[in-house]
Specification:
three-stranded antiparallel beta sheet; 54% helix; mainly alpha; elongated; 2 domains; binds iron/sulfur cluster
Length: 170
């Protein structure tokens, strides 16, 4: 990640939250034909991002878990799913399952993941910036820029593209 972006990310404020919320609302209402290529922007930013020097998602946000995640990781750890749930899983009032600790129990000192190959699907997908529904997810995108400097860089690129489109029509 370029230091220039990291500095902006570390200094995000409540006002930025409101501004990005407004931007993502505008983006979600824009015609799909005006959208830049989702995968291109995501790849450009992540090719310039060193997640091992960050790991903020693993340090601050408990990963959601599916039943499949639990089966796969329990098998890898050679414990029963029941034992895994008891040791590592939190269930909220809506029945949503997540890892029960931050920083994550599977995060190593060097910021790598000790279960990387079989990590939860939510970890693979975060920050969801390559998802085809990215332009429509207002709250999640806004929250994620506060967790992830790459998500901020991606939002900034989207803002530039959308603003240029608007300017070119004037
Ligand atoms: S917060 Fe974003 S940039 Fe940092 S490790 Fe997670 S995905 Fe990578
Ligand atoms: S399972 Fe791995 S990738 Fe997911 S939060 Fe924990 S350390 Fe990070």
């Amino acid at each position: 990640m370029k230091p220039e972006n990291l500095n902006r990310w570390e200094n995000l404020t409540k006002a930025d939250y409101k501004n990005y919320l407004a931007f993502f609302k505008k983006l979600s209402a824009a015609p799909k034909s005006q959208s830049p290529d989702i995968e291109t922007i995501h790849s450009e930013v992540f090719s310039d991002t060193d997640c091992l020097s960050c790991a903020n998602c693993c340090k601050t946000s408990p990963a959601l878990l599916t039943k499949e995640d639990i089966k796969r990781i329990s098998k890898h750890l050679q414990i029963s799913t029941k034992e895994f749930q008891k040791k590592y899983v939190l269930e909220d009032v809506n029945g949503e399952l997540s890892l029960n600790n931050v920083p994550c129990q599977f995060l190593l000192q060097d910021n790598s993941c000790s279960i990387y190959e079989i990590r939860p699907e939510a970890c693979r997908q975060f920050p969801h910036t390559h998802d085809k529904d990215y332009p429509r997810r207002v709250i999640l995108n806004t929250k994620n820029i506060f967790v992830c400097p790459a998500a901020l860089a991606i939002a900034e690129k989207w803002e530039n593209v959308i603003n240029n489109l608007i300017l070119s029509k004037k």
